[in-house]
Every structure is written in C-alpha cells, then in structure tokens.
Design brief:
The complex is a heterodimer of chains A (about 110) and B (about 110).
Chain A: E1 4-6, E2 10-13, E3 19-25, E4 32-38, E5 42-49, E6 56-57, E7 64-70, E8 73-78, E9 87-93, E10 99-100, E11 104-108
Parallel strand pairs in A: 2-11
Antiparallel strand pairs in A: 1-3, 3-8, 4-5, 4-9, 5-6, 7-8, 9-10, 9-11
Chain B: E1 4-6, E2 11-14, E3 19-25, E4 32-38, E5 45-51, E6 54-58, E7 61-66, E8 71-76, E9 85-92, E10 101-102, E11 106-111
Parallel strand pairs in B: 2-11
Antiparallel strand pairs in B: 1-3, 3-8, 4-5, 4-9, 6-7, 7-8, 9-10, 9-11
The chains are: A mainly beta (about 110), B mainly beta (about 110).
Chain lengths: ~110, ~110
C-alpha cells in the first residue's frame, strides 16, 4: 500500500510565523501535490512537483512556497502565516490516481 | 463553467438503500476518473479508479463512466452507516500532467 505521511495532524500558529508542513511518501512516485480544502470551496491546488528540485504553481500559490530536495519529501512553506490560511492541508502523490496523506488541520490565530 | 460539477447534498438514505452519486464535467480530454471517500477530519481515500468509458465493480461499489455524456457515477449497494462520508469525484488527462480536477464533494448520511 502507498503511504503518504504528513508530519502533523493539527497545528496552531500565530499570525506572521513561518510555517513548515512536511510530507513524505514511500512509493518512489515522481509527482507530488499540495492542496488545501475549505468548506464550500473543495480541494484547491497550491503547488506541485514532478521531480526533485522542480516545482510548479497551482491555482492558489500566493503566500506559499515549496521545497523538494529529495524525491520522497515535499514541503509546503507558509512564509508569513495569516488567518485566511487557516485550512485543512492535504499532500498527495500520484502516478495517475492520487494517494493522500491524512491531512494537517492548520489554525492561524 | 466549472470543469467538474458535483451536487454537494447532503444526501440522506436509510441503511440498505442503493446510493447513486454523480458528477458532470466539461473537458472532453479527461481520461482518468476517480472516486474518493473522505471521513470527517481525515484525508481522502481512493475508492475507485477507471480509465476511459465503462463500468468497474468492487464489492458493493460500482463506478460508471459515460464519456459521450461527460457523466460519471458511483453506485453503492446495500449502504451501511459506515458509508456515511463525503464522496469526491476527480478526473484528469495525461496532457495536463495528471493534475486532478475535483468535484466539491457530496455529503452522504446513511441512517440505521
């Protein structure tokens, strides 16, 4: 079975903090994705990566950056957290279908 | 027009009923179709994955794809209270690097 592990289930951060969300997959997949999920808005793509050190902007990249130094690890960075970034963050890896991590519920206060 | 449309529900059915969940889409290039189940406060879990048109069955679940109508369905037979969750459809095409396009999800409640 594919395993996608996100470093935290729940996080509470203060406005202005730099926040790191980590994601690790164990299946040697090239493609990795970060989404956020909000009620009424569904899943929205933030960033994705097809290879090490490669990144592409998704639909809502503003306020975020990513890092992919190793194939198995894809990190999402909130440069200066704001309250409108309170959300459920989901990492996924996919050959063609996506396999998701358990999600990180981030609250920015 | 959004690329993938899905009725958000909520849909409430009695235990044992047959459930039908649907999505429509506008992009005729979509080739890969998926259904995910998401329990509250958890990540989506892949239920069904189909390529192109046709039916696929797995236990109580059947996925149907009608590319001519741009319409996909998920049927759940003998529904159980444990099926209560949000169901998301997703689709992609190889030209876009497999980036998934999601519906917003349908909330299903199966009552005992």
């Amino acid at each position: 079975d594919v395993k996608v592990t996100q470093s935290s289930r729940y996080l509470v951060k203060r406005t202005g903090e730099k926040v790191f969300l980590e994601c690790v997959q164990d299946m040697d997949h090239e493609n990795m994705f970060w989404y956020r999920q909000d009620p009424g808005l569904g899943l929205r793509l933030i960033y994705f990566s097809y290879d090490v050190k490669m990144k592409e902007k998704g639909d809502i990249p503003e306020g975020y950056s990513v890092s992919r130094e190793k194939k198995e690890r894809f990190s999402l960075i909130l440069e200066s957290a704001s309250t409108n970034q309170t959300s459920m963050y989901l990492c996924a890896t996919q050959p063609s279908e996506a396999f998701f991590g358990q999600g990180t519920r981030l609250t920015v206060v | 027009q959004k690329e993938v449309e899905q009725d958000p529900g909520p849909l409430s059915v009695p235990e044992g009923a047959i459930v039908s969940l649907n999505c429509t889409y506008s992009n005729s290039a979509f080739q890969y179709f998926m259904w995910y189940r998401q329990y509250s406060r958890k990540g989506p879990e892949l239920l069904m994955y189909t390529y192109s048109s046709g039916n696929k069955e797995d236990g109580r679940f059947t996925a149907q794809v009608d590319k001519s109508s741009k319409y996909i369905s998920l049927f759940i037979r003998d529904s159980q209270p444990s099926d209560s969750a949000t169901y998301l459809c997703a689709m992609s095409d190889s030209n876009s690097g497999y980036a998934l396009n999601f519906g917003k999800g349908t909330s299903l409640l199966v009552t005992p």
